[in-house]
Design goal:
alpha/beta; Aspartate Aminotransferase, domain 2; homodimer; globular; Aspartate Aminotransferase, domain 1; transferase (chains A, B); binds pyridoxal-5'-phosphate
């Protein structure tokens, strides 16, 4: 594959946005991760085999045999009206009770929702605020839009409101056009933390005070282990919050069905943007989701998923606590798919990766979750896909790799044992990413 | 719905590209067209009910029941490797025998392919050359990318090479950055014409001489009524031609499966762009297409579609010839879905539309197919979806509307009877669109 620009005869013809595109850390891992001997704590693939595949199969088969004239045909750009109604029911579970189907746009996964919102709002050079770390797919979208990402620090309670306010003030002082805050309030990817109730209120108030648009990306909201779903930001503010949802984690990612809930004027722009991008979302997959919600016990299925992920989370946290060398810290997710781990002082997750692969364990290095190349000492561990035993084995291998690395560096005296809580008065721009010393102790 | 900017509190926050987006002529018709009493010659919906729905339904049901771990899971951004192999077999039917699956990117319909190629190449202000008229969905993509579209005239043999060369020279003189030529060589949407064999050669030679990138958009290539598929431009030049294909017209548009064939360096950019846009195309729909190609008699099905569309084309052309008032001309498609009709001198298809709808017939006014608001005297008639009897009834109604309009205008002496063949020496920029006096005579 010609990678060197001089080997690409079209190299001088690409758009400016194309030059910034680069392969994600996650994709670079794909070939490694698929080897059977490797325990992958890298991918974020849901456990779809826990679905009732026979029932779903015959349901979809009947949709085609019985309703082929609709399911195999073009549909509306905004998405199937029946599905949009059911989406409003789903959002009601998180306190969004005033959404109308006319404000919903069905998308090809919430990834497309992210892309559409960004295209509608962001000009090159505009600033987007995002947690540090942030979802890698969102960073890819912002990069393709030539936005400047400014990270706002988090801690165990999620995004820090004071840090957000400071970022807003600094952007204002610098004359930056802040287009929106992008935030994942529940079971954050990759940080594994959740925005606390008081902070939700604080952030909505800040949005009001600073006239800030908020993109609330919420694919994991129904996957809490210990509690009812938390009330969405959108449930508190229907004018400044644009909400992104997805069936990837509650049903199936292979259908690629997500949605955006936005005020009507924005909704109209989003529909025009999606029509230019894909004409309309696939009809079959939309009908499949609507029918699934209508006829299958989908809430029980979500509970089933939650039990399964809880068990895997427990396996991960227990073995981390039992095996990780001192100085290693990590977050303690109470929902979702991810643990965010900080290596002992001096270690670099990306540099360590070849050794981890040799030891047959894979993770995603933290730098992929920052727009500015920071995050070297972090990694994301996903517990969603492997069985508990594999998770334990993976953590065991990882612990050995880290220990060997520490031996190599012989820097035990440099081990970082302090408080990791990010401080809003820190260095402007990107402040320290989320970690947790609370849960980092050897149990 | 707040349409007035002052009613949209976010009006000052949209990206520059968003301001240019507007509802397409086709979508504006949707509500009208769906009324049962209206004969719609407007939409381009394929006749999917001619598919063996039971067989396709059980095939897809089995894919989910038996292979849910793959079909309901995330897949690769580039698309399923098995499907990409089968896509290469399909392209071989049009003379593309050297394509490798690694050069193929699966897309959410060829619409997404168009969008991806445009995103990878086009900066705001760049020039895109396109036939006049051109596919409305492509114009929407170019507009969203803030490209400047320069139309190149066509005639009954498709794009006119001399006019293309003239456009290239003029752009060169003006210092414009021409990013590519966008062309639909087969059974053009909306013009209904096909690029002749000698012109294919001429255009490939021009591309070589002027170092011009060509986007060959070919959803209808296998739907020729009277002959074997023509040899693709891509079959003649694998370095300067990027090829877009689709299963929307040969199988099902509701699955939204299309593809791009591009040199490896470009392919790499396209994969990064699609990952930022949708992560990956839906797995289920890709497996459905691959399995369909593997196990169903899909070539016979394409023949069946072709017979059906030929019959409808015949119904359209026969009734047009029998009923249209003098001065009305139209193209004579030998494949695909569309007839491009020119009204008698002085009539305006868009202004006439309310009267047509009152008379219960719908079409798409020609102006939607030009980037510059020209094309008032044209309309697109689609014969793909209605039954032959409906088509005849629709043409009858349309003829009456045109006649009434002519009476109203009392401009019979101004009727245009001359030669409509577009001339390359015409006015720079947009020269006269394709029409056909050859087939316009009252039969
Ligand atoms: C935070 C977040 N947003 C969006 C997505 C995209 O999900 P999808 O496009 O499958 O709906 C993901 C997937 O991992 C995610 O973690
Ligand atoms: C010329 C042309 N290109 C592309 C498309 C988009 O097709 P799809 O996205 O369904 O593959 C169409 C659909 O009508 C078309 O006519």
């Amino acid at each position: 594959m010609p990678r060197h620009p001089r080997l690409d005869p079209l190299a001088d013809r690409y758009a400016a946005r194309t030059h910034g595109m680069k392969t994600s850390e996650i994709r670079a891992l794909f070939s490694v991760v698929s080897r059977p001997e490797v325990v992958s704590l890298a991918g974020g693939m849901p456990a779809v085999t826990a679905l009732p595949l026979d029932a779903v199969g015959s349901m979809i088969g009947e949709l085609v045999s019985g309703m082929g004239a609709q399911t195999l045909q073009y549909g509306s750009g905004q998405g199937d009206p029946r599905l949009r109604e059911r989406i409003c029911d789903v959002m009601a579970l998180e306190g969004i009770t005033d959404a109308s189907p006319s404000e919903v746009v069905v998308t090809v996964g919430s990834q497309q929702g992210l892309d559409l919102v960004t295209r509608v709002f962001v000009d090159p050079g505009d600033v987007v605020l995002a947690e540090g770390p942030s979802y890698v797919g969102a960073l890819g979208v912002f990069q393709a839009a030539q936005a400047r990402v400014r990270h706002v620090p988090m801690d165990d309670d999620g995004l820090i409101p004071e840090a957000l306010e400071q970022a807003l003030l600094e952007c204002r002082a610098a004359g930056d056009r802040v287009k929106f805050l992008y935030t994942v309030p529940n079971y954050h990817n990759p940080a594994g933390v959740t925005l606390s109730e008081p902070r939700r209120q604080a952030i909505v108030e800040l949005a009001d005070r600073y006239d800030l648009l908020v993109i609330e990306d919420n694919p994991y909201g129904l996957l809490g282990f210990d509690r009812e779903p938390m009330r969405a930001l959108r449930a508190r503010d229907d004018r400044r919050v644009i909400y992104l949802g997805s069936f990837s984690k509650t049903f199936s990612p292979g259908l690629r069905v997500g949605w955006v809930l936005a005020p009507l004027a924005v909704r109209e722009k989003l529909v025009l943007a999606t029509e230019a991008q894909v004409l309309c979302p696939p009809s079959l997959t939309q009908y499949a989701v609507a029918r699934y919600l209508d006829t299958q016990p989908w809430r029980e299925q979500v509970k089933h998923f939650v039990e399964l992920y809880r068990e895997r989370r427990d396996a991960a946290l227990e073995s981390l606590a039992a095996l990780m060398p001192p100085g290693t810290t990590w977050t303690r997710p109470d929902g979702g798919f991810y643990v965010w781990l900080k290596l002992p002082h001096g270690l670099d997750a990306k540099l360590m990766q070849p050794r981890a692969v040799t030891a047959h364990v894979a993770y995603v290095p933290g730098i992929g979750f920052y727009a500015d190349g920071s995050g070297q000492e972090f990694m994301r561990l996903s517990y969603c896909y492997p069985e508990p035993d594999q998770i334990r084995e993976g953590v065991r291998r990882l612990a050995r790799v880290i220990e060997a690395e520490l031996d190599l560096h012989s820097t035990f005296d440099g081990v970082d044992t302090g408080t990791f809580r990010a401080v809003s008065g820190g260095q402007p721009g990107i402040v320290g990413p989320a970690t947790s010393d609370r849960y980092g102790d050897r149990a």
